[in-house]
Amino acid sequence: MDIKTSKIELVKIILNINNDNFIKKVTDFINNEKADFWNELTFSEQAEIKKGISQLEKGERTSYKEVLKNIS
Prior knowledge:
Elements (H helix, E strand, L loop, with lengths): L2 H13 L4 H13 L4 H4 L2 H15 L6 H8 L1
């Protein structure tokens, strides 16, 4: 079953539910469900971010002015 068909089937099921509490729970779940950007990153992007965090924790920092000086 493709995603469009699944969505339509889900809507049909929800339309037949008369339990206000259940509808509120489903609504709250949908509203609170947010994609975690971390899971959208590639393994190499995650590794680079972890490396940068590790460097910051060790005090290995470069000022903005220093970065500008190095790239110009």
